[in-house]
Amino acid sequence: MRSPSLLVFDFDGVIVDGMNEYWWSARRACLQLNPAVDLPESTPPQFRQLRPWIHHGWEMVLSAALISEQRGPLEQLGVQAFVHGYTAQCTAALERFGWTPALLQQTLEVVRATAVRTDPDSWLALHQPYPGVPERLTAFSEENMAWAVLTTKARDFTAELLASMGLKPERLDGHESGSKPEVLRRLACDWTLEGFVEDRRPTLETVRTTPGLETLRCWLVSWGYLRPTDVTDLSSGIRLLRPEQFSAPLADWP
Ligand SMILES: [Mg+2]
User: Fold this and answer.
1) Model's pTM, two decimal places?
2) Bridge partners, residue 206, by sequence
3) Chain region(s) in the chain for CATH 3.40.50.1000
4) Which superfamily does CATH assign the domain made up of 5-17+129-252 to?
5) What is the pLDDT of residues 99-133, one digit of tens each?
6) Are 49 and 78 in contact (CB under 8 A)?
7) Element (H, E) at 61
8) How far, in Å, is the centroid of ligand 1 from the Cα of 197?
């Protein structure tokens, strides 16, 4: 008997736009480490532009510090040239500020945990679902297509955010469940995977080279945190998914 179908979605950058929460948390963490920095309350454009290169939480805090720097490399080079040497720039900045990734990560996590504990409604309100996405996911449930969420965020936070949008996936896996390729491989034992929808191209490329997942259909959403070059020269197993295609029946997706 064929196992039931399941369509798997990344969360952040696919279902929810967490940009304002990133900035809010990164700014607070940065201010805790250096109360003298001057940072705007609303998300600055440089932070939005840097976001696709940011992989770990600590890099968000470092980005805030870089944005605050007068005549620093970010201001002098501009975002485009800065990201060209992103890793080396981050290493140099850590040294300049006398920080370690562990210190930044821990400060960020304390800021977040405090916000979630003391003012959960304000914290939830920093997350915006992408237009039309909750409605489309609800329609999958009505079409008898089971869908799941697979995220590198913590499971409990994600469950609360989904519930606040009235969404209930068939399954929810957070970073506690392991890496995305590992979880997908496990899911494939019990389900017929219809595909994986993500906004991070390197993750999709890793999935497609994972034994057992080579033929999994992968979609890169056009509305997530993409680098300008992410949409060009995609390999054949990874298709770009635009909002109008996402609203169409699954059988009509590219
Ligand atoms: Mg994402």
Assistant:
1) 0.88
2) none
3) 5-17+129-252
4) HAD superfamily/HAD-like (3.40.50.1000)
5) 999 999 999 989 998 998 999 899 999 999 999 99
6) no
7) helix 57-68
8) 9
